[in-house]
Amino acid sequence: MSVLAKQITRAKDKSQPLFSTLEITQNCNLRCKHCYNFDRSSNENPISKPFLNLNEINEVLASLNNLGALSLNITGGEPLTHPDLDKIISEAKSYNFHIRLKTNGILLNSSKAKRLFSLGVREVDISLYGASETTYIDFCKKEGFQKTIEAIKVAKDANLKVNVSIILHKLNFRDLGAMIHIIEDLGVFFQVSDEITDRYDNTNASNELGLSQSDYLELLKGPFHYFFDHENKERSLQCGCAKTVLGIGAFGDVFPCIGAPVVSGNIRDNGLEFIWENSPILKNIRELKSDDFKECSTCPLIEVCSRSSGSAFVNTGEYTGCDPVAKTFAKARFEKNK
Amino acid sequence: MENTDLLQTNFIINELISWRDIDGQILILDTSINESAHELNQIGSYIFTEISRETPLLKIKEALINTYQGQLDQQEIETDFFQYLNDLIVMKIITPKKL
């Protein structure tokens, strides 16, 4: 067992949120079709509540420090649009968090990348939505491909550790090889994200953009099949939600994970530490047993399923239920293995 | 660095790393220097925490000797202490404080 895995197990036993994500805004410079925040294709702005202000964010950071958080993911929306980003990072650095910034990279230039590093950011997670401007215009409603590639270069030059997240969807999955080739040439880490979930405002994104079973089978039979050949021999159904993982939304809602938006309290009503320690929802999630995942624990596909409770919740409203998107992919794996 | 020089130097934790105490053991995330995670045992965590508070090394060494007096040989404690400090320096987890 690696050092990190061993210590994560120890932190899990005492519910220490080592890996915390703070959404500082839902404003964004892109209008991606798949965005999980809300449907950005509408001209109406659905944001009716104020985002957390700087004082509230500082209170959250102090609470995360008291709770023993180690890694702080700063996300959005697009965090680089936040007018107080520098102040937020400086405050976070004062607590020695390992600071990661999740960004589309389009607003990142050389001087900004250097400033982020000097303020205390150590990693950037840059999303890549395609291998051409055409895909970006279609998917994100704006040019951005060249700017994203430039952002990866300047971030690397500024000593930031760069992780590229390839976001696969129906419009770009046949460009996977081209995207990997570009990233390997840049010499940075990357991962492939294959699931488009529904949005947190309950509008549907996955039917239109998500990969179908036949799309997935094509990927499984292709040269990059190893990114999709998921195995779950131990039939694991549990994750770090509410144990070593914690999410705080832009309006102060507290979640067991930013990818599992089960509202467990709001920091405007109670402090983060109180919610983390007393929320009945978080307690229930911590106490879940494999048998509580009734449909999944007896499913014949579980050993090839990459199910996450967050996606199941977003897509169906059931945290312990079946995620239909993950099941579609599991069916493709099962078919390939036949 | 010689042991006597070590004791006269003020060290701080390298600002490029992050760390947290997990039930008495320090976990260090070090993506910028060694690209790895490190765990420190209980005594290592004590030394590391005191350095993070900028406690003089001489005081840390004396505290260790007082704590383990009768259980461990003083020479052995000192040897292990300086070896541990040198490991932290080589890995750039601690650095001399610039005045």
Describe the fold and architecture.
The complex is a heterodimer of chains A (338) and B (99). Chain A is of the alpha/beta class and 338 residues long. Helices cover 38% and strands 12% of the residues of chain A. Chain A has an eight-stranded mixed sheet. In chain A, strand 3, helix 4 and strand 4 form a beta-alpha-beta unit. The longest helix of chain A has 14 residues. The two termini of chain A are 32 Å apart. The model of chain A has no long low-confidence stretch (mean pLDDT 94). The mean pLDDT of chain B is 92. In chain B, strand 2 and strand 3 form a beta hairpin. Chain B is built from four helices and five strands; from the N terminus they run αββββαααβ. Chain B has 99 residues and is an alpha+beta fold. In chain B, helix 3 packs across helix 4. The longest helix of chain B has 17 residues. In chain B, the strands form two sheets. A three-stranded antiparallel sheet of chain B has the order 2-3-4, with helices on one face. In chain B, strands 1-5 form a two-stranded antiparallel ribbon. Chain B has one domain.
What is the secondary structure topology, with strand pairs?
The complex is a heterodimer of chains A (338) and B (99).
Chain A: H1 3-13, E1 19-23, H2 54-67, E2 71-75, H3 85-94, E3 98-103, H4 110-119, E4 121-128, H5 133-140, H6 145-157, E5 161-167, H7 176-186, E6 189-193, H8 206-209, H9 213-220, E7 245-248, E8 254-255, H10 272-278, H11 280-286, H12 294-297, H13 309-316, H14 324-337
Parallel strand pairs in A: 1-2, 1-7, 2-3, 3-4, 4-5, 5-6
Antiparallel strand pairs in A: 7-8
Chain B: H1 3-7, E1 11-13, E2 18-22, E3 25-30, E4 36-39, H2 42-52, H3 57-68, H4 74-90, E5 94-96
Antiparallel strand pairs in B: 1-5, 2-3, 3-4
Helix pairs in contact in B: 3-4
